[in-house]
Amino acid sequence: MATTPKKDAEQSGVLQDKPTAAAAQHGDHDRIVMASRRADGSMDQVAPEFIGDKDTAVEAAKVQLGQQAASAVDVAARGVTSTPEGEGSSEPDAEVQALKDAQDQAIADAEKKAEREVDQLHQGLGD
């Protein structure tokens, strides 16, 4: 069985006979297609770099941030409420509509943030 000989680090730039800290000079970073998010909506990666299809990354970020923003508006606007069984009305509730409008605005703002974020950090298709 034939094997391919190991190339020198000078030739390929990949393999090292002796481990060095050269990679640390450039710093660690995460190559991502979709971000993990903290509770405040910020990305939970180290120096993130988006790879892959940019439109897919934008859509994923829009969905993530939009859902998170709508949930935050909901939690901030109302706590847990309940209506006793048998009570209520079929009329549209002004408070619910106001909450829906606030969520829609939060989603729109989050989608704009997602586009800015991906535009700033996108590095191509990862080839």
TL;DR of this structure?
The protein has 127 residues and is mostly helical.
Written account of the structure:
The structure is a single chain. This protein has helices spanning 9-12, 54-77, 94-121, and strands at 31-32, 49-50. The protein has 127 residues and is mainly alpha-helical. It has a two-stranded parallel sheet. Helix 2 (54-77) runs antiparallel to helix 3 (94-121). The radius of gyration is 24 Å and the shape is elongated.
Name its key features:
two-stranded parallel sheet; 44% helix; elongated; 127 residues
Secondary-structure topology with pairs:
Blueprint: H1 9-12, E1 31-32, E2 49-50, H2 54-77, H3 94-121
Parallel strand pairs: 1-2
Helix pairs in contact: 2-3
User: Biggest sheet, in brief?
Assistant: 2 strands, parallel
Q: What gap, in angstroms, lies between the N and C termini?
A: 31 Å
Given as residue ranges, the uncertain stretches (5+ residues, pLDDT < 50) are none
Overall pLDDT level: 77
Secondary structural class: mainly alpha
Elements, N to C (H/E): HEEHH
Query: Beta-strand level of the residues, as a percent range?
Result: under 5%
